[in-house]
Amino acid sequence: MVAALGLGALLMSGCDASEAMRFGWPEGITPQGKEMVDLWTWSVIAALLMGILVWALIFWTITFHRANDAKKGVFPRQTAYNVPLELTYTAIPFVIIAVLFYFTVIVQNDVEAKNDDSKVVVDVTAFQWNWKFGYNKVIFDDGTTYNGFEADGNPFQLQAQRDGEVEAEPEVEGEHGGELPGPAGGRDDDVRDYLKFNKIETVGTSTEIPVLVLPTGKRIEFDLASGDVIHSFWVPEFLYKRDVLPFPKENASDPIFQISSIDRTGAFVGRCAEMCGTYHSMMNFEIRAVSPEDFESYIRFRQANPKATNAEALQAICQVPGSVVTAPFDTRRKSDGSATATGNPNDTTLPNCTKKES
Ligand SMILES: [Cu+2]
C-alpha cells in the first residue's frame, strides 16, 4: 500500500524522475552542488526505508498482538533485560549514524576544499541592502593574468592607521580588571581595511539588480566581506551559502570559498540569507554564467571601456543587459517629490453632508 501510494504520488505529480529523486532540492549547477544532492537523495531514501520498517512493525503489532478474550487478565511476557536484544538495538542506530557521518564528512570536505588553481577570483562585498562584485583576478585561457585589485585609494585610510596617524580606541577596563576589547577587536570601527576595491566592479542599487558575470567550466573563488552587518551569500542552485561578516579575521570567520566549476550557462538568482535589516528580503543578485570566450570578451570590454555600465558590457557579448531571474523591489524611496496633497488638511468635513441622527 505504501509503495503504491508513493508510486502514485510520483506519477500524479507529473515531474520527471530526476526531479522527484531530489526531494525538493534545486538541481545543483556545480560539482559540489551535485554531490550534495546525491547525499541528500540517499539520506532521504535511507530515512524512508527506516520509516517503512517502523510503520510495518507498528501495524504488525496492532494487527496480530491486540488484546483478545484468550489473553484477557494475563500479564504479557516481559522481555526487559534481554541483553542480546538491547545490544542489537543500541548497535544498529550507532551504525546508521556512523554511515551518515562518514558520507557527510566526505561531501563536506569536497565542498569546503580550496586550492590555488582558481581561474577567477571575485571580491564580494555585502552591504545594507545590496551587493558589490569586483574582479580581483582572472586567468585567461592563453595563460595571461588580469589583475584587478585596486591597491590605491582605499577610502578608509588604512595607511594612516598603520602609520599611527589615526589613534586606536582607548582601552576600556573590564569589571574584573583587565582590558575589555572594544568592537571590531579593539580597532577603530571606521577602519575597514578588509574591504576590497577593484578596477572592474558591479554594484547593485535600488533600481538595478547586480549581475555577476562568470565563466562556465572554470574554478572560481569567492572572497566575502560585509561593509556593515552580517549578511549571507546564497545561490540556491549552488546549494551553498556562507555568512558574510564584517571584520572576518576578528570574528574568526573564513571568508573564502571556491566552486570547481559552473556546469551550464544561464542566469541563477542569488540572495541574502541572513536577516540583515528592513530590506533584507530584497537583497538579490544574479549570477550570469556565460561561455569562457564570452567571459573573456566581457572582461576585455569592461577593461577597455571603464565608463561603460555593466548592462552595456552584457549587451556587448549579446546577453540580456538586465537581471532576468529577479527584479528590484520598489523601495518607495524613488518619489520625485511631485506627489501633491489631495485635500485640505485644515478642513476634513464633507461638503453638503447631513449628519445622521443616532
Ligand atoms: Cu543581507
Automatic annotation (TrEMBL):
Topology within the bilayer: Multi-pass membrane protein
The UniProt record lists the keyword Heme: no
Subcellular location: Membrane
SUPFAM superfamilies: Cupredoxins, Cytochrome c oxidase subunit II-like, transmembrane region
Domain Cytochrome oxidase subunit II copper A binding per the UniProt entry, residue ranges: 117-301
Region: Disordered, residue numbers: 160-188, 329-358
Segments traversing the membrane: 41-62, 83-105
Cross-referenced Pfam families: COX2 (PF00116)
InterPro entries, sorted: CcO_II, CcO_II-like_C, Copper_CuA, Cupredoxin, Cyt_c_oxidase_su2_TM_dom, Cyt_c_oxidase_su2_TM_sf
UniProt-recorded name of the protein: cytochrome-c oxidase
